[in-house]
Amino acid sequence: MRIGLQIPNFTLGVPDDQLFEAVVQLASAAEDSGFESLWVMDHYYQLPALGGPSQPMLEAYTLLGGLAARTRRLRLGTMVTGVTYRNPALLAKIVTTLDVISAGRAMLGIGAAWYDVEHEGLGVDFPPVGERMDRLEEAVQICRAMFRDERPTFEGRYYSIHEASNLPRPVQPGGPPILIGGGGEKRTLRLVARYGDYCNIFGDVATVRHKIAVLHEHCEAVGRDPAAITVSRLSTLVVTDSAEETATTWEFLRSAPGMDSSGFNVGTEAEIVAQVEELAAAGVQYCIFNMPTSGADAVRRVGELLGGR
Q1: Are 78 and 40 in contact (CB under 8 A)?
Q2: Which of 151, 187, 262, 281 could form a disulfide bond with 204, CB atoms 3.0-4.6 angstroms apart?
Q3: Using 50, 70 and 90 to split pLDDT, how confident is the model at 88?
Q4: Regarding the domain with residue range 2-233+269-306, which homologous superfamily does it belong to in the CATH classification?
């Protein structure tokens, strides 16, 4: 099992001029322990569950460029880029630049976008979900072509490129891996089967197992080996110090209005290890965790516990 750390919030208890260094401390703790990758959200407003627009949010790719210069080993990406926020050719250039800065550690996480509040607040168009999915499919093809081909041309309904130049080339052969976020069975997982290198799924073990089965059906339909796609799962991790604390935490999560407890892993160290092993048995190859209320010591503890399992 490979593990990644997502940093979902920047309410870190420091003044703004010290905020980046606080994020670097989290990244260093992840890198020095067992984490393979570091991810940030591609949002301009903080999400409602973490305090909403009144809380700080750093722009994802500017932050990743800074972290690339302050880390050595961690792979770096967004979980996940909203397709509505950037022209896909520009996005390909941004991620290629991140790959160059990081000496080949960039990943492109991308999805259809959903947070209507920040779209409205910042004046970004927020088309219906069907159109966003269409745009996502075109964007993935453009990014993939610009990573792999010398002078690609693509003509779509929403986006086009014409003998697009992308110099310098990505450091990674074939370009940064593409992770497509979401588990929609008709469109998203079919898109993963065609173009994705990673598939990020949410939910409990039963849900994950079902989504993987659907993904394999799509792979068969398009003639692709499902082993070519790495399955990841993003969840919020809470490490407790006793079985009683575990039970209390689960009770709170399951009773909180609007809270989906299937997106959490909660337990003592031994319980977390057992949960990760169960996810691995269901087909998850990459666990990505966020720990919104934890500091660098907790990140290091989890990395040492789970890294290399």
Answers
A1: yes
A2: 262
A3: very high
A4: Luciferase-like domain (3.20.20.30)
